[in-house]
Amino acid sequence: MTDTNQPIAFKAEIKQLLNILIHSLYTERDIFLRELISNASDALTQIDFVMLTDRDILDPEAELAIRLSVDEDAKTITIRDSGIGMTREELATNLGTIAQSGARAFLDATKDNSDQKLADVIGQFGVGFYSVFMVAEWVRVTSRSYQKDSQAAAWYATGGDTFTIEDAEQDTRGTTIEIKLKSDAEEYASESRLRQIVKTHSDYVRFPIYIGDDEEQANRQTAIWRQAPRELEDSEYNEFYKHLTLEFEDPITRIHFVADAPLRIFALLYLPAKPERGVFALRKEDGLKLYTRKVLIQEYTTDLLPSHFRFMQGVVDAEDLPLNVSRESVQATALMARIKKILTKQIVKQLETLAKDQSDTYANFWQNYGLFIKEGIASDQSDRESLYPLVRFHTTQHSESWVSLTEYVAQMKDGQDKIYYILGDDDRSVARSPHLDYFRKHGYEVITLTDPMDSFMLLGLREFAEHPLQNVAAPDLELPAAEAKPEEEPASEALPADDLAGIIARFKAQLGERITDARTTDRLTDSVARLVDPEGALDQEMQRVYRLMDRDYEVPKKVLELNPRHPILARLSQLPADDALVASVIEQIYESALLIEGLHPDPASMLPRIQQLIEAALR
Ligand code: ADP
Ligand code: MG
Question: Which fold has domain 497-537+548-617?
Answer without folding.
Answer: Four Helix Bundle (Hemerythrin (Met), subunit A) (1.20.120)
